[in-house]
UniProtKB/TrEMBL annotation:
Coiled coil: none annotated. One of its GO terms (biological process) is glycolytic process. Its EC number is 2.7.1.2. It comes from the Bacteria. The keyword ATP-binding applies. This is Glucokinase. One of its GO terms (molecular function) is ATP binding. Gene3D superfamilies: 3.30.420.40. It is an enzyme of class 2 (transferase). Keywords: ATP-binding, Kinase, Nucleotide-binding, Transferase. GO terms for cellular component: cytoplasm.
Amino acid sequence: MSKIILAADVGGTTCKLGLFDEKINQIHKWSIKTDTTDPTGYKLLEQIYQSFEEQLSAHDFDFTQVIGVGIGVPGPVDFESGIVDGAVNLYWKERVHVREMFQQFVDCPVYVDNDANVAALGEKHKGAGNEADDVVAITLGTGLGGGIISNGEIVHGHKGSGAEIGHFRIDQDQRFRCNCGKSGCVETVASATGVVNLVYFYYPKLTFKSSILELIKEHKVTAKDVFDAAKAGDQFCIFITEKVANYIAYVCSIISVTSNPKYIILGGGMSTAGPILIENIKTEYRNITFTPAQYETEIVQAQLGNDAGITGAAGLIYTYVIEKGGVK
Ligand SMILES: [Zn+2]
């Protein structure tokens, strides 16, 4: 009888769900709308469970075949307990005991982790990480998130804040305020939001004409506009792109001397900007990184796109239940 892993990647608007086999091969994926009306999280988790139940039976499986349920959540997670300490995008203001709640529905292990960590685990197993034991994934989206896999394990740290690399203070001038309440975090200068921050900071100093000037004036400029204009040769946008690339390279460099990954995987919307961004990151990375720490370390683009989350959520069950026999 074949075994099944259930995976959920909970996002602010949709929950991506998946059925996987015991080797993390995707059998089926689908999504449901995220219910954000219940701040206790119960309603959302119940809907996820019901959806799993429907799809299991639609594929001629039942819960006795389920090895475990892996769940990725957009918020700080205490991995040991499965408690999520608030999640802004889900309107969870208080702590939500996701594991305990989900365990009311199922009779198998439930593992919960932060969405950036599970995305890293997904890329390690089925994406750009090529099953390497030391992999770092950086998600360059509206914010900047990260997951570090070291010696085959997700780095959680003492209270689950390991790999919160978006809040690494890099901008010593602290020009922009971060969502975390502090200022100067790398997220404020090297995410899609950060690109726009830099545009508005540098544009008053602009001494030549930029092709995105109208967009800037109308407050409509996006990171994509900046990278597209840079590709077309716009000097101002090239300048901004290089700044952003240098910040990202600096983060990669610090991570390299910390955990010495085989792959540094760049994902998220910004990672599709192409060579204009990634080649600049690689160049600066090589310039500034302690040489032995960059031997055979490759900076590569993520491969799984939106599937990284569910794949990594299934990967939690593979890593912590199948490989380790349920330890932790
Ligand atoms: Zn921050």
